[in-house]
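My main concern about presentation is that the manuscript never shows what a single data entry looks like. An entry of this sort, consisting of the sequence and the corresponding C-alpha cells, reads as follows:
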Amino acid sequence: MNSLMEKKFDRMEAFAGQFKSGQFEREYHGYFVLFNQGEYYEAHDVLEHLWLQRRGTEEFNFFKALIQYAGCFVHLKKGKTGPALRLFRLCRSYFLTYPAIYRGVDISDLTASIDRWVEELGNEEKDFDFSLHPPPRLHLVD
C-alpha cells in the first residue's frame, strides 16, 4: 500500500471508530448512519474502507453496490442526473444478484426505491433540484 493509501486507511479506521459495532462491522453500521444523515460522500468513504478489505468475497459486490448507491445521491445533490442514472442502474444490477434479505438489507425494497428514482429522473440529463425531494433512507431489518 502506498503512503497516500495508508494515510486514508488510517483516517478511515479512526473515523469508523465512532460507530457502534455488533452484528455488523463499524464501517457497515457507519454507512447507514451517514447515509441517513444525508452525508452520502462520507457514507461512500467509510464503506469503501471495508470494501477494499473484502476483495474476492461474497460481500465485495454488495458493498460496491451500496457505495454506488450513495454515489447516486452525491451526483443528485450536485444536480448531475446523467451520472446518477448510470450508477442507479449499475448498483441495481449488483443488488439483484443477492438474496431477498442480505446483511440486513431488504433488497426488494432497495431496488424498488432505485426504480422510483430512475422513473423520477427519466432517461435524459435534466435540471434537478435534490432539495425538493424527500431524502432517501436506508434501514437494516432483522
User: Anything to note?
Assistant: DSSP finds six helices and two strands in the chain. The first strand starts at residue 101 and ends at 102. The CA atoms of residues 28 and 47 lie 6 Å apart. The mean pLDDT is 88.
